[in-house]
Amino acid sequence: MDVSFIMFKVLKGCDQGQTRRLVKPIIAVMVSRHKLYSLIPEPQKSL
Q: What is the pTM of this model?
């Protein structure tokens, strides 16, 4: 998944209020996903 492209489209296509509303959940998902990945042992990360 190309996160930077999604962020670029979100930031370019929305006004400030909408952008903030969309970016917060995206960041939350990224953070929770990062926490999950750090819990998963190395071999399973490549799935």
A: 0.38
Asked, for residue 2, whether it belongs to a domain, the answer is no
Cβ count near 11 (within 10 Å): 12
Render pLDDT for 21-44 as a digit per residue (tens, 0 to 9).
Answer: 777 888 888 888 877 777 766 665
45 belongs to a structural domain: no
Separation between Cα atoms, residue 7 and residue 20, nearest integer Å: 11
Helix (H, G, I), strand (E, B) or coil at 40: coil
Q: Which residues contact 26 (CB under 8 A, 6 or more apart)?
A: 3, 6, 7, 10
Cα 39 from Cα 20, distance rounded (Å): 29
Q: Is residue 4 part of a domain?
A: no
